[in-house]
Design goal:
heterodimer, A: about 110 residues, mainly beta, five-stranded antiparallel beta sheet, B: about 110 residues, four-stranded antiparallel beta sheet
């Protein structure tokens, strides 16, 4: 099946720092989404991207749909302790269910 | 706003037993998806239903079956449970098939002993 390569696998950052994570695919995707998951909870949708080159913000979060349609990144500015969690990229290569990346585990040190 | 409701939240079963998980989608959402997430893993797509018909099939074992009912709720039936079936099972719903914006429930944690 489709594979999404998400990096980094984990990050330890100081409160107030900016964070960047990305996702790549070997094939073209029509949709890119970013989810956050807290322990024992379901993934929560953060940002959805539908057009190549699209740059979308949601508060301190900014995500972009790569021009090649094979990648996406998520930036978090001025991190705070509640940003801790696992961030998953997810994509759709066509009219198919979402496939997920392996996740980036974010730890914020106060 | 109403979210996706899953029950039970926790379930403990013995090997070879059966289990049934229920999912109530967000009102007016017509598509339901089931995902399985093992410890430290990403969610893996199992199966989906659109307007009460099976839509897409992923890595769902033959021992598992699912359906969507007339009120749009869905049930995942798991038989001959194995230790490896221990996982978080998430249901998600969307308005429209494979529209991308899935809204997930809080999950059902299945432990097989």
């Amino acid at each position: 099946g489709q594979q999404l390569n998400q990096s980094p696998q984990s990050m330890f950052i100081q409160e107030g720092e900016d964070v960047s994570m990305n996702c790549t695919s070997s094939s073209i995707f029509n949709t890119w989404l970013w989810y956050k998951q807290d322990p024992g909870e379901g993934p929560v949708l953060l940002i959805a991207l539908y057009k190549a080159g699209e740059l979308t913000s949601n508060g301190r979060l900014t995500a972009q749909f790569g021009i090649t349609r094979k990648d996406s990144f998520l930036n978090i500015s001025a991190s705070i302790p509640s940003d801790v969690g696992i961030y998953f990229c997810a994509g759709q290569p066509g009219n198919t269910p979402l496939v997920f990346g392996k996740g980036t585990r974010l730890s914020v040190i106060a | 706003a109403a979210g996706v409701i899953q029950s039970p939240r926790h379930l403990i079963k013995e090997k070879r037993e059966t289990a049934t998980l229920k999912c109530y989608p967000i009102p007016r959402h017509d598509t339901v998806y089931w995902y399985q997430q093992g410890p430290g893993q990403d969610p893996q797509f199992l199966i989906s239903f659109y307007e009460k018909m099976q839509s897409d099939k992923g890595s769902i074992p033959d021992r598992f079956s699912a359906q969507q009912f007339s009120d749009y709720h869905s049930e995942l039936n798991m038989s001959s449970l194995e230790l490896g079936d221990s996982a978080l099972y998430f249901c998600a719903s969307s308005l429209g098939k494979n529209t991308g914006e899935l809204f997930f429930g809080e999950g059902s944690r299945l432990t097989v002993l």
